[in-house]
Amino acid sequence: MNLIIQPLDPGEMAKSKNHTAHNQSYKAHKNGIKKPKRHRQTSTKGVSVRADPSSDSRCAILFLLTPIGRSGRMDPKFLRNLRYSRKHNKKSGEVEAEE
After folding, report:
1. How far apart are the C-alpha atoms of 91 and 89, rounded to whole Å?
2. How many domains, the chain?
3. Are 52 and 59 in contact (CB under 8 A)?
4. Closest CA relative to residue 49, chosen from 84, 21, 16, 25
5. Is residue 92 part of a domain?
6. What is the reported pLDDT for 31?
7. Does a structural domain hold residue 11?
8. How far apart, in Å, are the Cα atoms of 42 and each of 2, 60, 69, 84?
9. At residue 28, what are phi and psi to the nearest 5 degrees?
10. Is 7 inside a domain boundary?
11. Where are the compositionally biased (Basic residues) regions (predicted)?
């Protein structure tokens, strides 16, 4: 059996494999693929709720750093309730301090 081996040209390099998904699925399932945890309320990080004196002392919502959630906004109903709860927490603290 005669095998003819031709050397590579000096300017030609050997081909190499670019990508493989070998073993990746095994590694992913080793500890189980888990769904991300869903929280009852979204985080209020990056959201400031404060009174705006220019709008009849109604509260304005300022989005400071990052959009929240897919729509980029937090639920307005949740924020309104949050605003009232913070407001009344302060009032109840003052009454207890006086007594």
Report:
1. 5
2. 1
3. yes
4. 84
5. yes
6. 93
7. no
8. 73, 19, 8, 17
9. -65, -40
10. no
11. 27-42
